[in-house]
Write a structure and sequence with these properties.
42% of the residues lie in helices and 23% in strands. The protein is built from eleven helices and ten strands. It has a six-stranded mixed beta sheet with strand order 6-7-8-3-9-10, with helices on both faces. Strands 2-1-4-5 form a four-stranded antiparallel beta sheet, with helices on one face. The longest helix has 18 residues, at 177-194. The chain binds adenosine-5'-triphosphate. This is ABC transporter domain-containing protein.
Length: 267
């Protein structure tokens, strides 16, 4: 039995009087994909940001590849970034607008693996090809790419240093549905080919169904349900999960009933 690549125990994060994350625990096995679902404000993003070392937990632990994740110290951060990379909803802000996509994809290779300029150029070409971007797209500036192409570029940049875990925070939410499908298919193929693990944060249950094996459902910072994604979506046990499912418009959808159920749950 292999060890989890990522283990989160009793994570708590408070902002003043708001408890954004309240006693969250989960394990992620190598090659697995875990969904974190819940509505806006349920604590998904804060959890993801803690995993990536962008936020320090108030209490609790994150263990990455058998060692405590650290947010202090350049070496510790570099090690952590080498193991876990994060992809945001729109990576536009994290690309240098004056650099070509290829230069941005190369940057982490320079930081983490060194090697000659020629080796790096070869790796960049390989990465762009892996995510379905042409050499021409590589020579473009981020602003000249479509949202879907930019997300492909972000994936290429994140994969360059061969991390064990990718944390994706609403990474397809801003894309058109057909482009969403392409990116999800790409992510699925990459996982199968490389054995990388995903933590996939999304409010969209259809997306989570496609891309994850297991999921946790968060509400007000707490995990209210966990298990296999398919089971959760077919046979939700917690009233909040049922409410999330009932909130998706479908034939016979009754928004009045959903609103009533929510009032009962909040009471
Ligand atoms: N930096 C911060 N300062 C103060 N409160 C914060 C901060 N970040 C998050 N919060 C609060 O923590 C709670 C959880 O927010 P979080 O963004 O993690 O939820 P979410 O489920 O990811 O929602 P969304 O999808 O809207 O980002 C919210 O009440 C939010 O207002």
């Amino acid at each position: 039995m292999s060890e989890p690549v990522l283990s989160v125990k009793s994570l708590v994060k408070t902002f003043g009087s708001v408890t954004a994350v309240d006693d969250v625990s989960f394990d992620l096995m190598p090659g697995a994909s875990l969904g974190i679902v819940g509505e806006s404000g349920s604590g998904k993003t804060t959890t993801a940001r803690i995993l990536a070392g962008l936020e320090r937990p108030t209490s609790g632990t994150v263990t990455l590849d058998g060692r405590p994740a650290a947010s202090r110290g350049r070496r510790a951060r570099l090690r952590q970034a080498g193991l876990l990379q994060m992809i945001f909803q729109d990576p536009y802000g994290s690309f240098d607008p004056r650099r070509t996509v290829a230069q941005s994809v190369e940057e982490p290779l320079r930081l983490h693996s060194g090697g000659s300029a020629r080796d790096r150029a070869a790796r960049v070409a390989e990465l762009l090809d892996q995510v379905g971007l042409s050499a021409r797209a590589g020579d473009s500036l981020p602003r000249d790419l479509s949202g879907g192409q930019r997300q492909r570029a972000a994936i290429a940049r994140a994969l360059g240093i061969r991390p064990r875990v990718l944390v994706l925070d609403e990474s397809v939410a801003a894309l058109d549905v057909s482009i969403q499908a392409q990116i999800l298919t790409l992510l699925d193929e990459l996982r199968r080919a490389s054995g990388i693990s995903y933590v996939f944060v999304s409010h969209d249950l259809a997306v989570v169904r496609y891309i994850t094996d297991t999921a946790i459902v968060m509400r007000h910072g707490r995990v209210v349900e966990r298990g296999e994604t398919e089971r959760i979506l077919r046979h939700p046990r917690h009233p909040y999960t049922r409410l999330l499912l009932d909130s998706i418009p479908s034939p016979g959808w009754d928004p009045g009933r959903v609103a009533g159920d929510r009032r009962a749950l909040d009471a």
